[in-house]
Amino acid sequence: MENRQLRQYYRQTLYGNRSMLARAIDFLALRLVIFAILYVYILMQTAHVLLAVILATIGTLMATCAIALWKSIRLDKYIAQKRIELSRDYLFEKIVLLPRKRFLLLIKQLVRHMGYRVVCEHPLGLLCEVNDHAAFILALQNHPEHQVDIQQLLDNYREIQSLGVEECLIVATARLTDTAHAFLHELKEIEFQVLNRQKILDLAQRQGLLPDTQEVEQALLSKLEEKRISLKKLKREALHASRVKAYISCGAILYAASFITGQRLYYPLMGALCFFLAFVAYYTDHKSAAIQPKKARSR
């Protein structure tokens, strides 16, 4: 059974994380437009107002059902696509955090399907053979935010050059900088290829190495729960009783400033918001204080 919280997350990301209010306005606006078009068309055909209203209402309801069905199909397709995307992201996070030995084992598994035969391990990666000539797999396990720069490639190139290989495959968990790419094109003694994040994940997906959907969604639920707790904590701190005086003072200052500066719209609105927050904080604190004795008596 699909988790309701997960389905809500998928729906929200599908619609660009738009708020419920914005989506409700879109819902009503579209139905009003459909109703108006149908009403005008039917009225022009029949010249009967009541009949036009009834038929336009029925047509709007039918259109609503059709839209709901289309949205449901669209959401199911999006969920299937998003699950693969999340699995790939989750796998990549695990790859970045893998110990060096396990990272090299994963690379061995990936490059074996590309025709490489691993001869031995090397501090920088793997010494291999491919198409009857020596090749090297340079394993760069950088954090995705830390790009592979030209100096890192230069330091590794000096070591690889001494091995006498003809080809080098760079497996990088972070993208190469533009200068690093330009540097590789300038090197003629060794032929370089880059296996970036996209290609690594494509290989892993073809070989069935993506994690189980249930494992990925469980990790996603944990993140969503952490986010919910953080927002709840932030809300509790913002509406704590100790904030009441500060909100009242801020509101009073803004109202006073409106007379001094002549800003009779913006400052009073902000002041009213401060007073509203003060009221909410005061009400929330007293409501929670009243609930606690009731809970104690019920025990």
Topology of helices and strands:
Elements: H1 4-14, H2 20-46, H3 49-97, H4 100-112, E1 117-122, E2 125-130, E3 133-140, H5 150-161, E4 167-172, H6 178-186, E5 191-195, H7 197-206, H8 213-238, H9 244-261, H10 266-298
Parallel strand pairs: 3-4, 4-5
Antiparallel strand pairs: 1-2, 2-3
Protein traits:
extended, 5 strands, 299 residues, alpha/beta
Taking pLDDT < 50 over at least 5 consecutive residues as the criterion, the unreliable ranges are none
Overall SS class: alpha/beta
**Overall strand count:** 5
Span of the ends, CA to CA:
36 Å
Question: Describe it for me?
Answer:
- There is one protein chain.
- This protein has 299 residues and is α/β, with parallel strands linked by helices.
- It has 10 helices and 5 strands; from the N terminus they run ααααβββαβαβαααα.
- The longest helix has 49 residues.
Summarize the structure.
The protein has 299 residues and is α/β, with parallel strands linked by helices. The protein is built from 10 helices and 5 strands. α9 runs antiparallel to α10.
